[in-house]
Design a protein that fits this description.
Number of helices: 5
Shape: globular
Order of helices and strands: EHEEHHEHH
Number of strands: 4
Largest sheet: 4 strands, antiparallel
Radius of gyration: 15 Å
Mean pLDDT: 88
Oligomer: single chain
Helix content: 25-40%
């Protein structure tokens, strides 16, 4: 659905409510970009969330990526979602509430040595494409 993301270094992993998100997450530190979260429930797959890691917001601001705390891994594991609760703790609860069997997380490094595409810009573009197709944002982006 998002051909724009094919040029980036990418990976994915599955997460079940009984897993440790810290253990199954295969992202390394000091990478910036975005991640798409697909919910698997009752034989269906639905894109439920699109998010980005923190800086850079402006081209050329990153001199030493290791100095910026909000990389993809940090954001995915410890960012707040569904209230003031870190994802590693809120996702399992939300999955049980919504009867989601597993999450399939796809991540993309948009800002590195090869690409200098700002995560905020790429996220905005992907959300616009999604909204253009479905007429609304992914449901976890609205919460």
């Amino acid at each position: 659905m998002f051909d724009e993301l094919s040029k980036y270094k990418q990976g994915n992993f599955f997460f079940q409510a009984t897993d440790s998100l810290v253990e199954v997450c295969n992202l390394t530190r000091d990478k910036y970009g975005l991640y798409l979260v697909y919910a698997l429930s009752k034989g269906r797959v639905e894109l439920v969330y699109i998010n980005k890691s923190g800086p850079p917001e402006k081209a050329g601001v990153v001199k030493e990526p290791k100095d910026i705390a909000d990389d993809l891994r940090e954001n995915l594991l410890n960012g707040y979602q569904f209230g003031e609760i870190e994802r590693k703790n809120s996702w399992p609860v939300q999955m049980m509430i919504e009867d989601i069997e597993a999450l399939h997380v796809h991540w993309y490094v948009t800002y590195d040595e090869k690409n200098h595409d700002l995560p905020a810009t790429v996220k905005s573009k992907i959300l616009q494409i999604y909204q253009g197709i479905y007429g609304h944002l992914p449901r976890w982006n609205k919460m």
